[in-house]
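Researcher: I'd like a structural prediction for the single chain below. Treat it as a standalone chain; there are no partners to consider.
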Amino acid sequence: MSELPKRLVVDTVLFISYLRDDELSDRAEIVINRALTKETFLLASSEMYDDLITAYRTGGYKPNEIREILLDLRAIPHEVVPTTLNIAILAMDLYSRYGGSRRLHYFDAFHVATASTIGEPLITSDKFILENSKNLGIKTIDLKEIN
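Model: Treating it as a single chain, here is the predicted structure.
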């Protein structure tokens, strides 16, 4: 995939991959660079910050290290979509229906609900979301296919 839509909702993996320099960091960098040049506008669920912090805490990072990572996020253009009551209800409906091991994760339910509510595609590498996007009511973009 060479073209990205003008607006898209980002899964936390985009920021984690970009900041951690993992196997998807080169693809995440392409998306971030398109945001920096204003070709693509990134939207994130307000739950994304908690998701990111939880991922780093689980990875053994100390609070001051996580704080530095959060400060680094300021350089990445993105707009936060607040979790409204309707988004939270939809997230819990989705999680009740599709949640579980190797299925829809708790935080991902908020990313999906946000994308569904605002009608923008979700960029993710999550296999369950990508394979079940129609049932989840969203369009998806596979981060692994960005080039």
